[in-house]
Structures are given as C-alpha cells and as structure tokens.
Write a structure and sequence with these properties.
Helix content is 31%, strand content 34%. The protein contains six helices and 14 strands. It binds adenosine-5'-diphosphate and uridine-5'-diphosphate.
Length: 237
C-alpha cells in the first residue's frame, strides 16, 4: 500500500491518500488540544496508544456487528482505513453526567443515569461545534433522517459493547464521542477513533480519571493514565 500526499492535517491525526481511491492512511500524533484548540500540548506516546486502542476496539465492534472504517494496522502510528465522507456530527453518548453536560444542566459530575443519553454536536470549528438536534441536522442536510436513525442505533450498540468490555477491565465508561461516515455506496460506518482522547474512562474502584480530562484539567500524570488504561485493555482483549 503506497502512502501518497497528505489530504488533511487535523488536531490529533494526519490523513493521507493511498494508491487506492477507496482507502486512506491515518497517522496518529502526540499533539493534544482542548477547548476548541485554545489549549495545546503534547502527550508523549499518545499517538501509539490511540492508534492501537482504536484498532482493537473497532475490531471488537466489527465482531459485534457494527461496521467500521478499520482495514489494517500498518505501524505503531499508522492505520489503513476505508475512505468515508464524514457525517459532520459529533455523536456523544453518556452513561454518567460529566463535562459539558454537568455544566449545562447544573448536575454534579458522577450522577449515574437510569438510561444512556445521546446528543449531537455540529462538527464545525468556526462555530465551536454547537449542540444540535436531529431535526436541525436533517434541515441542514448534514444527514438524512434514515441515516440519523442508523447512527443512533449504532451509537447505542457501541455503548453496550464498550461499557461491558471496559467493565471487565475495571474501568467505567462515563461518556464518549464517535463519528460516522458514508462509504462510496452510501453505507454508514463508524470512522475516526475511539481512545482516551474521545472517551471518559474512570477507574471503577477509585474513580481516578484515565483519559484526556487529566490534560484538559491539568491533573498531572497524563501519560501514566493513557499507559495504565492501555495496559488494562491489553490484559482483557
Ligand atoms: P480534527 O479534524 O477534529 O482536528 P483529527 O486530528 O482526528 O480531528 O483529524 C482526523 C480527521 O479525519 C477528522 O476530521 C475526521 O473526521 C476525519 N476522518 C476520520 N476517519 C476518516 C475516514 N475513514 N475517512 C475520511 N475522513 C476521516
Ligand atoms: N469529546 C470529544 N471531542 C470533542 C468533544 C467531546 O472526543 O470535540 C468527548 C469527550 O472526550 C467526552 C465526551 O465527548 O468523552 C463528552 O464531552 P463533553 O461534551 O462533556 O465535552 P467537554 O467537557 O470535553 O467539553
């Protein structure tokens, strides 16, 4: 597989074309950002962990019947994926109140919901990724109503799979963000990544944060937390 010119450089990954028009190579960086790019830093070794973790979790989800963009891991930081046209929605599932949900609704972090919730943000950096509902998303033609139904079904399915898996690792899945895309034939698949950058993961015993909140909130031991959660995953996958 030949790596061709760079298509895009994002905050956490670079995306390259290949000699196959249906395939891309994603290259994970150690760069970390928060608050819509306002806070910048480096988490040493993050790219390697996020690449591997995302690939292992996506392969698990595939086995559970959720289609993903994953094709093959190429190196520590590089993965071959199916090229998609990204649906510009950040799909957020929550099992426990935290972060922007706690702030917006004035609920303490850690309140466990009776049922998981879903919300969408419009993926648009200039607008600061505003919260959007599914009717607005359909009106703006970001996705069809049918695509939104599929995305919701997959997102809740992903939550059930990941919640159960992380629980085996002694980790509580608090919330996460996923992105979906369309293959050239219109099929909706899970794309982007699933990692401590995009999930809130708390130690089930101590409640210790094992995710990007350590960077966002200057809690220290950021690299240790990424390494710890990766080790837990490797012991149970
Ligand atoms: P951001 O764009 O938010 O800074 P990243 O640094 O993670 O994020 O960049 C990766 C970009 O690649 C994201 O915009 C993501 O939507 C996009 N992407 C992820 N998977 C695919 C895929 N399979 N095909 C096309 N684009 C993808
Ligand atoms: N998230 C993400 N990218 C974003 C915004 C959120 O991956 O641009 C993830 C975040 O890591 C958390 C979940 O989505 O696991 C919910 O985040 P929240 O809305 O609470 O936002 P935050 O507190 O990060 O601003």
């Amino acid at each position: 597989m030949e790596k061709k010119e760079q298509l895009y450089e994002g905050k956490a990954k670079k995306v390259f074309l290949t000699d196959d028009p249906e395939l891309l190579i994603v290259d994970y960086k150690d760069d970390a950002t928060a608050f819509n790019g306002l806070k910048k830093g480096t988490i040493v070794g993050k790219g390697v962990i996020n690449n591997k973790m995302s690939n292992l979790l996506m392969q698990r989800l595939e086995k559970a019947g959720i289609p993903t963009h994953f094709v093959r891991e190429l190196s520590d930081r590089e993965t071959l994926v199916k090229k998609v046209s990204i649906v510009p929605l950040e799909v957020i599932i929550r099992n426990i109140a935290a972060g922007s949900f706690s702030k917006r609704y004035g609920v303490e972090e850690g309140k466990v919901f009776a049922c998981p919730t879903i919300e969408f943000s419009y993926k648009n950096d200039d607008l600061g990724d505003p919260l959007i509902n599914s009717y607005h998303a359909a009106a703006l033609e970001l996705a069809t109503e049918e695509e939104i139904e599929t995305i919701k079904k997959y997102a809740f399915g992903i939550n059930e799979q990941l919640k159960a898996f992380w629980s085996e690792c002694g980790v509580t899945l608090v919330d996460f963000k996923v992105e979906f895309g369309r293959l050239s034939d219109g099929t909706i698949v899970l794309a982007d990544e699933i990692s401590p950058d995009t999930c809130r993961l708390w130690d089930s015993e101590t409640g210790m944060k094992l995710d990007k909140d350590r960077f966002r909130r200057d809690l220290g031991n950021v690299e240790d937390a990424y390494t710890e959660v990766m080790n837990r995953l490797m012991q149970h996958i």
